[in-house]
Design brief:
Blueprint: E1 5-11, H1 15-26, E2 31-34, E3 51-53, H2 63-81, E4 86-88, E5 91-95, H3 100-111, E6 117-120, H4 121-127, E7 139-143, E8 147-149, H5 151-164, E9 168-170, E10 175-180, E11 185-189, E12 192-201, E13 217-226, E14 239-245, E15 248-253, E16 261-265, H6 286-299, E17 309-317, E18 324-329, E19 332-336, H7 346-357
Parallel strand pairs: 1-2, 1-12, 2-9, 5-14, 12-19
Antiparallel strand pairs: 3-8, 4-8, 5-7, 6-7, 10-11, 11-12, 13-16, 13-17, 14-15, 15-16, 18-19
């Protein structure tokens, strides 16, 4: 590979990296993507059958525009590749009217000029009796644009489309060092040197190795599935986020045909130990699922609280729970800090990176995800 020159190299081909490579290729950029594994794989942050897709995002009001752009790009990619990537089912956000879940979702909808349907606790109980222990002052808002997205299918489709557009993909290749000499970048890999005018660092939990001055906190979490009891199909039990109290959020969705119910607990603001991504414990213990089992037993009815499957996953948190996306150094861009809610926005993030790489802008608010807020 010595002497090969590209316009942009993308290091890491998870959701953000695959999206960036695809959107660069769509712009005619001579691009190469590099991954130490063979994506999609189950060794990082983007695996499993589903991820929640919410349009009116409680995490930041500007993310509604990201979600709508991502939805359009998911649909474009479906048309190009035939892969099923997004199923819109609607979604329910539950909590006290002043909770972050409800108030944040409503703020995001209002920014887009949308007034969400508001259900009382009694109305929610009648529509979705699976939810137990609703307080009299609990409410729910319904996001008609919510649904479930296919993470592994997206990576496959994005890399397929990028390859069709002449992007090069290197897998099972480790990046050992990256040097920005001011005129371009030199990337030392296990397969030789790659040279590019610019590089995109999208290496997930490994990103801190290449950007040590960014406040990145990789942690281990567990994805968990449960038997599909009656009333727990996706149609009867669509996407939901329920803020039980500020320190406890339960989320999930019903089972796809032939699948299982996916349930989990919120990670934002919850103490977790940082990890070395090369030495993550991939063994699942009962302790790993104890809090979730207790929460399911107490707050959901008619479902066995013993999970049928569980798998470790790595997410990378930031101090403000927002992504870190944009130009980091003269010839270096970053796309990371997923904070556990980035997958739904990956196509939009890829578009932001691709536009930045060619000196263009996108009609999105990007200040709240810019690396400069930490530099």
């Amino acid at each position: 590979m010595a002497g090969q020159q590209y316009d942009v190299a993308v290091v890491g081909l998870g959701a953000m990296g695959a999206a960036a490579l695809w959107r660069l290729a769509e712009r005619g950029v001579r691009a190469i993507g590099i991954d130490r594994f063979t994506p999609p794989h189950d060794l990082g942050a983007t695996h499993g059958q589903t991820r929640l897709f919410r349009t009116f995002c409680l995490e930041h009001p500007a993310l509604g525009e990201y979600a709508r752009l991502s939805r359009n790009l998911f649909q474009q990619l479906e048309q190009h590749t035939g892969e099923s990537l997004l199923s819109v089912t609607g979604g329910t956000i539950i909590g006290h009217p002043d909770s972050l879940a409800v108030s944040g979702t409503r703020r995001a909808a209002e920014r887009l000029g949308v007034t969400l349907n508001l259900w009382t606790a009694a109305e929610l109980a009648a529509r979705q009796p699976q939810h137990l222990g609703l307080r009299a002052d609990d409410v729910a808002v319904f996001d008609a644009e919510a649904g479930v997205a296919n993470p592994e299918g997206f990576i496959r489709a994005a890399l397929q489309r990028a390859g069709e557009l002449s992007a090069k993909v290197l897998t099972q290749v480790s990046v050992r060092a990256i040097e920005d000499d001011g005129n371009g970048v030199r990337i030392a890999t296990s397969a030789g040197e790659v040279r590019a005018d610019q590089v995109v660092l999208a290496s997930g939990a490994w990103l801190a190795r290449f950007a040590p001055d960014l406040p990145l906190d990789p942690i281990r979490t567990v994805m968990t599935w449960f038997d599909a009891a009656p009333g727990y199909g996706l149609a009867e039990f669509p996407v939901f986020v329920r803020e039980i109290h500020p320190a406890l959020t339960l989320w999930g969705h019903g089972a796809l045909p032939g699948g299982a119910v996916k349930l989990g607990l919120g990670d934002i603001g919850v103490p977790r130990s940082s990890l070395d991504p090369d030495h993550i414990d991939r063994h699942i213990t009962r302790e790993d699922t104890a809090e979730l089992r207790q929460t399911v037993s107490q707050w959901l009815g008619g479902i066995d609280a013993q999970p049928v499957s569980a798998h470790p996953c790595m997410i990378t948190r930031t101090p403000d729970a927002q992504f870190i996306v944009g130009r980091y150094r003269r010839n270096v861009l970053v796309a990371g800090g997923d904070s556990g809610h980035a997958f739904k926005h990956a196509p939009a993030i890829g578009e932001i990176i691709a536009a930045e790489a060619v000196g263009k802008t996108v009609e999105l608010d990007t200040a709240f995800i810019a690396p400069q807020r930490f530099l």
